[in-house]
Q: What sequence folds into this?
């Protein structure tokens, strides 16, 4: 009963917690870093955002660097060590999950 | 600010953590034409060494060296082909064709030169391979200027 209540409360609150796997956002975010994400589509340039990868639908994290007519252009802070909009193109708003509000 | 931090810590303790991927191409295969360029340069060097040993009075050590150079040429021509195929099929996208209309032809010719440098000891083919791969590297660098 307590578990169900907790699950319900977690769904209500507009936050989600993630642990980083990978290097494409280094040095800003390193492997194992814990993020607090605010679930919202209202993101602005330079925000670190979580989104569904157009390649495999995994949840990935990138920085929003440009907004164009064709969508949101995202890029990893780790230059050559990132697969991002340079490879898979702009992403749509519906694929954005939220923006990072805290890193621990 | 302290309240905000406390709030975030509460959130972290309250929510189970899920995986989020800072998705990268390592070790899946980082895109870099340097590996292809190094391989092409090796093919050229081996071709030059083999041609230097093309003389009538070869010693046993000359024969040994020729064989080793041929094996190395073969290995690096194949490596060059694999590296450029990765760039061609995985890195370059359809939108790059607008900027580089001869992209497919450039890659096709480079792949053919990888084969011909294996099949023959040709200084011309080896030099053409280096030029072709350098051309690919230039296209790659141009696409990175986002």
A:
């Amino acid at each position: 009963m307590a578990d169900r209540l907790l699950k319900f409360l977690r769904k209500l609150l507009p936050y989600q917690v993630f642990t980083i796997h990978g290097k494409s956002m280094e040095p800003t975010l390193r492997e194992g870093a814990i993020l607090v994400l605010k679930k919202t589509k209202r993101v602005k340039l330079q925000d670190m955002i979580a989104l569904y990868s157009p390649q495999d639908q995994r949840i990935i994290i990138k920085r929003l660097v440009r907004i164009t007519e064709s969508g949101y252009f995202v890029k990893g802070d780790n230059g050559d060590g990132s697969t991002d909009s340079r490879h898979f193109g702009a992403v749509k708003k519906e694929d954005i999950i939220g923006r990072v509000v805290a890193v621990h | 600010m302290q309240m905000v931090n406390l709030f975030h810590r509460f959130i972290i303790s309250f929510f189970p953590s899920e995986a989020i991927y800072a998705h990268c191409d390592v070790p899946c295969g980082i895109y870099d034409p340097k590996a292809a360029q190094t391989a092409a340069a090796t093919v050229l060097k081996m071709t030059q060494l083999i041609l230097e040993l093309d003389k009538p009075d070869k010693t046993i050590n000359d024969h040994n060296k020729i064989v080793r150079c041929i094996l190395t040429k073969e290995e690096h021509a194949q490596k060059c082909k694999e590296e450029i195929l990765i760039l061609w099929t995985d890195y370059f996208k359809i939108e790059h064709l607008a900027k580089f209309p001869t992209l497919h032809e450039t890659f096709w010719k480079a792949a053919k030169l990888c084969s011909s440098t294996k099949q023959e000891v040709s200084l011309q083919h080896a030099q053409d391979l280096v030029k072709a791969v350098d051309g690919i590297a230039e296209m790659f660098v141009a696409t990175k200027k986002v």
